Amino acid sequence: GVYGDIDTECIRPVDEWLAHTGDFYNTGLAIGIEVVVGDRQDWREYFDRPIQICQWSMAAAPGHPALRMVLEKIRQFFDSRTVEQINNITVCEATGPAIWSDSVIEYLKDRYGVVLGNGPFDKEQLENRFSHIGE
């Protein structure tokens, strides 16, 4: 399935999103990097994570493990807090870009040994190219 926030506009046909891989229809998860803050000291004023995964547009195969992981993390997040604690947490932290980014980054590390921000997936590479990770 493909998801886009209501305030986004699809400017490229979805089946061209991963044309560089040669096979969009057999891709399990298509995500984008929203921001890599690098050395920026004030990043917390604008973003939730130093490497933030785009959550306003994505595509995934049904039941993809990364999607299941984020749902489980959200459930655990709320189950481990009191109502008072929940009332003092932002939506971005609880169900938005923070927990989405944490989940996708953890999935990539656990499944493929990929650490975003290091090695072949350092700041420069994440900002300037498409990457294909996985089968």
Question: What would you say this structure looks like, in words?
Answer:
With 135 residues, this protein is of the alpha+beta class. It is built from five helices and five strands. It has helices at 65-79, 83-87, 91-94, 97-112, 123-128; strands spanning 2-4, 29-30, 33-36, 51-53, 57-60. The strands form two sheets. A three-stranded antiparallel beta sheet has the order 1-5-2, with no helix packed on it. The longest helix has 16 residues, at 97-112. The radius of gyration is 16 Å and the shape is globular. The mean pLDDT is 87.
Key attributes of the depicted protein:
135 residues, two-stranded antiparallel sheet, single chain, alpha+beta, globular, 5 helices
Q: In which order are the strands of the major sheet placed?
A: 1-5-2
Counted beta strands: 5
Percent in helix? 25-40%
Number of helices: 5
Uncertain parts: none
Give average pLDDT, whole number.
87
Largest sheet, strands/sense/barrel: 3 strands, antiparallel
What is the approximate shape? Answer: globular
Q: Which percent band covers the strand fraction?
A: 5-15%
How far apart lie the N and C ends? 19 Å
Q: What value does the Rg take, in angstroms?
A: 16 Å
| Quaternary form | single chain
The topology string of helices and strands comes to EEEEEHHHHH
Structural class: alpha+beta
